[in-house]
């Protein structure tokens, strides 16, 4: 096949679209306190701004890849861009919490069809192995920097314009990408034999929604409430039926042989547990910086940059160099242990902690630990995968990240708000001290949730130690990981 003369311009268009999707996992975090105040969200409901996006994204991502197979990559890519831009505009214009939650879910749904088609188009545009490696390296670097850019952009837009611009900003970016797509992307016809596993999508997404909804309702109803237990039971049952169905349908969303491999299953589970803790950290530290310490949105965004810098350093400078010589778990398990230690350091936060001495060391440890984990996970997941399974393998890793973000945000937000309420009940004896006790209660709730996040990181370290037994990759294969969304 002749090389696509517009392939490098195609890379620009595709990378811009992917960067927009990655940005939306973090850009709204900084805007969340302002959005909560203006729209009157409760502390228990605020997590839906994050989880509505990640749930729809993770729950529909595998289906999105099948849709791209059926209808054609370019057509699905453009449709995803237009839909994402429209959903972003609806979210920016939201006049109620429900409207914002719905718009975020729509964003996630269109992101789920946009992301797989972007990767397929990139692979189609670059046929030379050396050029393809360079293109995926650039694409991965942009995707990996998305979280840092999201924090900074979210802070600047919220402070100097309005929180709504954290959503509006996607519309002009998407318009530029759509125009570029029509101009330079080479179309690829759909696969006539491809079939959509709609029952699988309904079962998987329904099970995840029930679980997350159950976790969020536990904040107001209590864990022993019949409705909460019913939701959690229904969620687990739906996911069990999803697994049963995937074993029997001729074209499953998730071929089970992908996750039967011990090393791959351990890597997926490690990533899910790690992201559960990380999304909780993003949520709580955003509120801690702005509500408790009084940081501006812009300074809040900048406060997260050292964490991202440490993640990049751990991934590229340490794991990238050592992975050729050591088994993956010798990086992943210590990485998760370091991240857990960083979380434990942050459990010592008070209402007047200093950034340089009390916060920064914990953020650096967490970032370094996540960086040591990311690249070995990516390399282990793709090792020995047949070409026909490479797409679903990468999509499953992305799904594990989004599902981890959804469940972790809902679960840890419930832990935090419940702990805050309990602290207030026990310590609010003098009405004159209500303001100060309330601040202490909020921080107490965050620290309890951070203890839980530390536990999740330690569990990830244990999972890695017990399940991942892969040897060191052969020379030259380390680092050839799929592009999965980085959140740290």
UniProtKB/TrEMBL annotation:
InterPro entries annotated for this entry? EmrB-like (IPR004638), MFS (IPR011701), MFS_dom (IPR020846), MFS_trans_sf (IPR036259), Sugar_transporter_CS (IPR005829)
- Residue ranges of the Major facilitator superfamily (MFS) profile domain? 10-472
A matching Pfam family: MFS_1
For this UniProt record, give its keywords in alphabetical order, as a comma-separated list: Antibiotic resistance, Cell membrane, Membrane, Transmembrane, Transmembrane helix, Transport
- Gene3D superfamilies given for it? MFS general substrate transporter like domains, Multidrug resistance protein D
Enumerate the transmembrane spans. 12-35, 47-64, 76-99, 105-126, 138-161, 167-185, 197-215, 227-247, 268-289, 301-319, 331-351, 363-386, 448-470
The membrane topology term of the UniProt record is: Multi-pass membrane protein
> Which residues, by range, are in coiled-coil regions?
none
Classification via PANTHER family: BLR6921 PROTEIN (PTHR42718:SF46), MAJOR FACILITATOR SUPERFAMILY MULTIDRUG TRANSPORTER MFSC (PTHR42718)
Looking up NCBIfam families in the UniProt record yields: efflux_EmrB
Identify this protein by name. Answer: MFS transporter
- What lineage is on file? Bacteria, Bacillati, Actinomycetota, Actinomycetes, Kitasatosporales
């Amino acid at each position: 096949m002749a090389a696509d003369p517009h392939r490098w311009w195609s890379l620009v268009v595709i990378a811009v679209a992917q960067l927009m999707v990655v940005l939306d996992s973090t850009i709204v975090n900084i805007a969340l306190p302002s959005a909560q105040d203006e729209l009157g969200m409760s502390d228990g409901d605020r997590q839906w701004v994050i989880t509505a996006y990640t749930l729809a994204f993770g729950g529909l991502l595998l289906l999105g890849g099948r849709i791209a197979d059926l209808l054609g990559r370019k057509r699905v890519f453009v449709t995803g861009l237009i839909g994402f831009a429209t959903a972003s505009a609806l979210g920016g214009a939201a006049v109620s919490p429900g409207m914002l939650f719905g718009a975020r879910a729509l964003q996630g749904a269109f992101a789920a069809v946009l992301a797989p088609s972007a990767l397929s188009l990139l692979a189609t545009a670059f046929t030379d192995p050396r050029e393809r490696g360079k293109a995926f390296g650039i694409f991965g670097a942009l995707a990996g920097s998305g979280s840092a850019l999201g924090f900074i952009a979210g802070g600047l837009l919220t402070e100097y314009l309005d929180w709504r611009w954290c959503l509006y900003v996607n519309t002009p970016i998407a318009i530029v990408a759509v125009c570029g797509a029509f101009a330079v992307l080479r179309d690829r016809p759909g696969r006539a034999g491809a079939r959509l596993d709609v029952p699988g999508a309904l079962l998987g997404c329904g099970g995840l929604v029930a679980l997350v909804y159950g976790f969020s309702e536990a904040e107001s109803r209590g864990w022993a409430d019949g409705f909460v237990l019913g939701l959690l039971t229904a969620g687990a049952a739906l996911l069990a039926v999803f697994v049963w169905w995937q074993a029997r349908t001729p074209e499953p969303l998730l071929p089970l042989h992908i996750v039967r491999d011990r090393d791959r299953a351990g890597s997926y589970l490690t990533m899910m547990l790690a992201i559960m803790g990380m999304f909780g950290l993003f949520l709580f530290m955003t509120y801690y910086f702005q509500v408790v310490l009084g940081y501006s949105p812009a300074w809040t965004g900048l406060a997260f940059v050292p964490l991202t810098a440490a993640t990049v350093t751990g991934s590229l400078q340490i794991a990238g160099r050592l992975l050729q010589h050591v088994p993956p778990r010798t990086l992943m398990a210590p990485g998760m242990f370091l991240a857990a230690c960083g979380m434990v350091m942050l459990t010592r936060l008070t209402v007047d902690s200093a950034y340089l001495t009390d916060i920064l060391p914990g953020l650096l440890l967490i970032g370094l630990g996540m960086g040591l984990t990311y690249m070995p996970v990516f390399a282990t997941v793709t090792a020995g995968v047949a070409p026909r399974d490479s797409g679903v393998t990468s999509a499953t890793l992305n799904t594990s990240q989004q599902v981890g973000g959804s469940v972790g945000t809902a679960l840890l937000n419930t832990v935090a708000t419940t702990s805050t309420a309990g602290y207030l009940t026990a310590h609010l004896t003098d009405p004159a001290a209500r303001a100060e006790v309330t601040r202490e209660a909020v921080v107490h709730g965050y620290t309890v949730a951070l203890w839980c996040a530390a536990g999740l990181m330690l569990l990830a370290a244990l999972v890695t130690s017990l399940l991942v037994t892969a040897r060191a990759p052969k020379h030259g294969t380390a680092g050839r990981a799929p592009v999965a969304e980085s959140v740290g």
